[in-house]
Amino acid sequence: MLTAAVTLLLAQTQPISYIDRSLSAHRNLKAANVSITVFRSEAAGKKTTESFQLAFVRPNEVRLRMQTKASGDQRATDRVFAIVGNRLTAYDATAGERLQKTLQGSGTLADRLIAVLGPLNDGVQAILEPARMAAVLDPFKALKGWTVSKESADVVLVRRMNSANSVMLRFDAKTLLVKKVFFLASGNTMEWTYTYGPKPTTVAFRPPSTAILVDEFVNRVAPPRYADAAARRAGETALNAMNRLRAAEFTITGNDGLNSKVSYTSGMVREELRGRAWAYDGSVLTASIDATKRHFSSKKGRNSSIDSLGDISMYGSPFVRALLQKRNPLFALLWQGYTVRIVGEMTIGGAKCTILEAKAMEIRNTISIRASDGLPVMIRTENKEPGSSHTIVSQIDIKYSSVGKPLPASKFKIGVKAGFKSGPFPTRKQA
């Protein structure tokens, strides 16, 4: 009798009122700590579950922990990304890696996470951005036939069209914050579940000092498809070797026969090629051209350094440009959409190597990696032009003279030679 009376009383309050009051509660939510579970079930039988721990303090602090279970080609992951102001701190517990970066640009908290992570789950965005929650709930306000009931400390709205189509919205009766959104459409199910904890005063965190500092996580959101466990081990060994490379000197020989000498340590890069040399020490880009007796020096960011080098016709190889940008040069070769397999073994320069092939559409990458340390010694890309029998081939061979040996900071600044004219890099004209 009591339950029936409560249901009758609640039914007299229009569902639209609950939705509007909930949206108002979310707009006024300045800080939150929320456990989020996103469940999907397809009529064909496939089921997926994702778990997130979201904390934010408006206007400029957000932390997201993402956990996934092992599935197919993807390993289990446990990663935390925290943005405080323009500073990103992240930790991959599975790989034992951490990273720190200064972010550029601005935007909403969701925008900033998307800039770091790529696509962000809708269930997470809905809590993080009131406008996104409104986009989810507003369409329901036009629907009729809702049943409103009280269950424990919750208000529950249900609308059933038939056995294969229904909607359920669950709100906290006191705060009116959304606790669950459930859709069933043509046998396909989606369910977002939210559990609220104590509100945070800050989202800052400090990863374990034992975690290895890297520029990018190897355990990525979008890994390639590995043909088998051996291919996965080889691919991840190569990615890890480049990710954790702290210092090296090596020569790159292109299929044009030209050699460039490269020095690298902790984000600082130097390259020398046929009377041309450039170096970046983390803040200042310097370059020298023997033929014109010109020397250039300007304070630059990493991305603008690539543009400035192009302005003086110093382009360098994609491998070295990736190092300049503090990116793993192998990520673009072993990426989502590629199928990776081991195609053989051979000895190169006296070192036993495993040969990996990564194919996607009309592109085939072949990477030879040293068995001793996982570093690449040959990278070949074959790109077949669509609708043509013509294939563009590029290849580099890498010969290391030192690995892990500390290099002096002075090496990453090109000095002015006698008789050379020195000045800043050319300034690009605005269009």
Describe this structure in words.
- The protein is an alpha+beta fold and 431 residues long.
- It folds into two domains: 2-212, outer membrane lipoprotein receptor (LolB), chain A (Clam), CATH 2.50.20.20; 225-412, Lipoprotein localisation LolA/LolB/LppX (outer membrane lipoprotein receptor (LolB), chain A, Clam).
- It contains eight helices and 25 strands.
- Strands 13-20-21-22-23-24-14-15-16-17-18-19-25 form a 13-stranded mixed beta sheet, covered by helices on one side. A twelve-stranded mixed beta sheet has the order 7-8-9-10-11-1-2-3-4-5-6-12.
- Helix 2 packs antiparallel against helix 5 (130-137) and helix 4 packs across helix 5 (130-137).
- The longest helix has 15 residues, at 229-243.
- The termini are far apart.
Strand content: 35-45%
Q: What's the shape?
A: elongated
> What class, by secondary structure content?
alpha+beta
Which fold name is given in CATH as the topology of the largest domain?
Answer: outer membrane lipoprotein receptor (LolB), chain A
Number of discrete domains:
2
Distance between the termini: 75 Å
Major β-sheet annotation: 13 strands, mixed
What's the β-strand tally?
25
